[in-house]
Amino acid sequence: MNRSLIEKVPDFLTTVRIIGTVPVLLLLCLIGFSPTIHLVTSLLVVALALTDCVDGRWARHFGCVSDFGRHFDPLADKWLTALYVPIVSWGMIHFIPVTLLLVRDITITDLRARAAKQGKLIPAHLSGKIKTAISFPLLCLLIAFVPVEGSYFSAFHWLSPYLYWIGGLLLSIVSLWSGIDYYSKFRKGVG
Q: Per the UniProt record, which residue ranges are transmembrane (predicted)?
């Protein structure tokens, strides 16, 4: 495979995640109209979440970490996280875990901007990776379990209350922990 093509894959995946969030938001507005729209929306969200798993690993494995990826990969994650907002309005998850997640993401973005002004870079921490490992699969499951008549996932709708409480609790804990972790390391000057 061409080396220059290999180096472009992570940035391409990050760009796909940013751009792909827009049609998913539009599809979320139409999700209740048809099981097919529900299925397509669910699969697109899974595909976008998977790009986050692949792009960073690819970049590190092939030694093609870029400035674009360092700056835009976290932004792409924030865009994907924004998909939680309609799910709150449907009552699929409580607003508190999602608020904690969004506040955590905004705070980390601010910390990264302040660190950049000081010529420092705040890399992803383990707590951030765990937050992502919980929040993106939970997002995929919540969208899949939106009650749509004739849905392909209707056999699993009974899991929704468990996702509401257990998923919400996990999301709250990991968002708080990760936010505190990043903030404390920023204050200590540790990247």
A: 12-33, 83-103, 162-183
SS3 for 172? helix
8 Å CB contact between 91 and 36: no
Q: Are the CB atoms for 84 and 98 separated by under 8 Å?
A: yes
Question: What pTM does this model have?
Answer: 0.90
Q: Which amino acid is at 60?
A: R
CA quadruple 50, 54, 55, 57: dihedral positive or negative? positive
Cα gap 168→172, rounded to integer Å: 6
Q: Write the single-letter amino acid at 141.
A: L
**CATH architecture of the domain with range 3-188:** Up-down Bundle (1.20)
Enumerate the domain spans of the chain.
3-188
pLDDT digit of tens for each residue in the chain (191 aa)?
Answer: 676 888 889 999 999 999 999 999 999 999 989 999 999 999 999 999 999 989 888 888 888 888 888 888 888 998 999 999 999 998 999 999 999 999 999 999 899 888 888 888 888 889 999 999 999 999 999 999 998 888 888 888 888 999 999 999 999 999 999 999 999 988 887 65
